[in-house]
From TrEMBL:
SMART domains: B3. One of its GO terms (molecular function) is DNA binding. This is TF-B3 domain-containing protein. It holds the Pfam family B3. The lineage of its organism: Eukaryota, Viridiplantae, Streptophyta, Embryophyta, Tracheophyta. Gene3D superfamilies: DNA-binding pseudobarrel domain (2.40.330.10). InterPro entries: B3_DNA-bd, DNA-bd_pseudobarrel_sf, LEC2-like.
């Protein structure tokens, strides 16, 4: 699939808890509500999904499908990807400071894509030293959303 068919939605810099033992990725509320189906309503206005959330499928840069449980946690008022997330982190060898990119197909808006990119080592160390771990990371471009796990 050509990159022109993919529309960038947002990027999420990973925190230590996103890649740690909590086995979940917190999706910023503004992005969750704008781009993803409602886990509370059961999708795009469908029946109530309940506490179990929804299964969302994303294609990576290699064409592999990754399925994650997407839920809303009332206790923390957070949108999260859970089941399947820890496997993605391990397979892609993701670390805190790396970025996960979310995209969708330009015409088939239900078709979702996921990619990752590494935070530049220099940007990460100098920004972390300044107390701002995500400064200096460039904005998202579709061509940036590819896995670099092999080079790590």
């Amino acid at each position: 699939m050509s990159e022109e068919e993919k529309h960038p939605l947002f990027e999420k810099p990973l925190t230590p808890s996103d890649v740690g033992k909590l086995n979940r990725l917190v999706i910023p509320k503004q992005h969750a509500e704008k781009w993803f189906p409602s886990p509370v309503l059961g999708g795009y206005g469908g029946p109530v999904a309940g506490d179990r959330g929804l299964l969302l499928a994303f294609e990576d840069e290699a064409g592999l499908t990754w399925r994650f449980r997407y839920s809303y946690w009332n206790s923390s008022q957070s949108y999260v990807l859970t089941k399947g997330w820890s496997r993605y982190v391990k397979e892609k060898k993701l670390d805190a400071g790396d970025i996960v990119c979310f995209l969708r197909h330009r015409e088939n808006v239900g078709r979702l894509f996921i990619g990752c990119k590494r935070a530049a080592a220099a940007s990460r160390s100098s920004a972390t030293a300044a107390g701002h771990p995500y400064l200096g990371i460039s904005s998202l471009h579709p061509s940036d959303c590819s896995s670099h796990a092999a080079g790590k």
